[in-house]
């Protein structure tokens, strides 16, 4: 049985949900969380396209970002599925929420821990949080210790 997750995309105007992406396997932070980081690192959200931002890693709003993330992750049938905004309680262990307030942010929740927020902040801080050397969850761990931060 896989570690299921949801990724929620909120729009940039009023933080309303656009779409929910369900992942069947590898939904833990070192799986899906790392995949999101690999794509979102250095991503800029813009309002309109021009020649200045064509060469940057950009998304023209959160709707554009959600489509790009889905295209990046979906390689074959299965594993990833789109659901309507508001979808919850379909077996997910982790919920990742992408939202925009002056910059792109991500919130990571563990639903098996009563929805406890594991992280909430911008992508740069998320990158630091995902780094096992910085993450206090992984301090004092010896090689071979079980932890979802590998």
Q: Which labels suit this protein?
A:
150 residues; alpha/beta; six-stranded mixed sheet; two-stranded parallel sheet; 3 helices; globular; disordered C terminus
How would you write the strand order of the largest sheet? 5-2-1-6-7-8
How does the major sheet shape up? Answer: 6 strands, mixed
Helix/strand/pairing category? alpha/beta
Extract low-pLDDT stretches. Answer: 138-150
Compute the gyration radius: what is it?
16 Å
Q: How does this structure look, described?
A:
The protein has helices spanning 29-40, 62-73, 123-130, and strands spanning 5-10, 17-23, 44-45, 58-59, 80-83, 94-100, 104-110, 116-122. Residues 138-150 have low confidence and may be disordered. It has a 6-stranded mixed beta sheet, with helices on one face. It has a two-stranded parallel ribbon with strand order 3-4. It has 150 residues and is an alpha/beta fold. It has one domain (5-138). Helix 1 (29-40) packs antiparallel against helix 3. The two termini are 20 Å apart.
């Amino acid at each position: 049985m896989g570690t299921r997750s949801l990724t929620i995309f909120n729009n940039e105007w009023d933080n309303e949900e656009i779409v929910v992406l369900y992942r069947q396997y590898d939904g833990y932070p070192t799986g899906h969380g790392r995949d999101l980081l690999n794509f979102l690192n250095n991503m800029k959200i813009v309002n309109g396209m021009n020649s200045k931002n064509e060469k940057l890693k950009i998304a023209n709003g959160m709707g554009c970002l959600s489509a790009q993330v889905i295209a990046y992750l979906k390689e074959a049938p299965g594993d990833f599925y789109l659901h309507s905004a508001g979808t919850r309680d379909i077996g997910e262990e982790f919920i990742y929420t992408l939202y925009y307030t002056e910059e792109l942010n991500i919130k990571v929740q563990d639903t098996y821990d009563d929805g406890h927020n594991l992280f909430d902040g911008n992508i740069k801080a998320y990158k630091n949080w995902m780094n096992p050397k910085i993450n206090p969850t992984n301090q004092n761990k010896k090689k071979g210790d079980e932890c979802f931060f590998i």
